[in-house]
Amino acid sequence: MRMLIPPKRLRKRVSDQLDAFFETHDERLFKSAMRLLCEFYKTKQPKIEWFERIDHGRTLGKTFEDGIVYLMHPEDFARNRKYNTAAQYRNAVLHEFAHVLMWTDAETKANEYAKRFEKDLGKVVWKD
Q1: Which residues have CB under 8 Å from 124's CB, separation 6+?
Q2: 49: pLDDT strictly greater than 90
Q3: Structural contact between residues 60 and 77, judged by C-beta atoms closer than 8 angstroms
Q4: Are 38 and 67 in contact (CB under 8 A)?
């Protein structure tokens, strides 16, 4: 499955903000990165809940179908894990964001998919 990926300039900006958030713990940087991603994908910002540990420290993040995301706070990630780099943390955040993109608002996405799939085929008339 192919997924639409933001342009390199936007990816770099988001990546830099997540790295800075990992280092400074300034939540404004995290919110800015999420805002940029949500604007690009035209989706609502997920509700983020911060935790010291998830699943006894084995999990960095967890996403639910209702769009709520549990994330280990970077302070706790850096302190409680053997491998604790900014790149690993950034990857975990982006991984959970991808779950948000795929799971939330599934009905609207399914309708849009069907609409685009059959566009210009002349078989189905869609009324929105």
Answers
A1: 118
A2: yes
A3: yes
A4: no
**CB environment 43-77: b (16+ within 10 A), e (fewer):** beebebeebeebeeeeebbbbeeebebbbbbbebb
Rounded to an integer, what is the distance from CA 97 to the centroid of its chain?
1
Determine the residue type at 33.
A
Cα distance between residue 24 and residue 16, in whole Å:
12
Residue type at 2 in one-letter notation: R
pLDDT at 33 over 90: yes
**Residue range 54-74, pLDDT digits in tens:** 887 678 889 888 889 999 998
DSSP H or E stretch at residue 51: strand 47-51
Segment (H or E) for 5: none
d(CA 94, CA 11): 11
> pTM for the complete prediction?
0.78
Q: What is the pLDDT of residue 23?
A: 93
As given in the structure block, the two tokens for residue 31 are 């919110």
Nearest by Cα to 101 from 58, 46, 56:
46
Write down the pLDDT at residue 110. 73
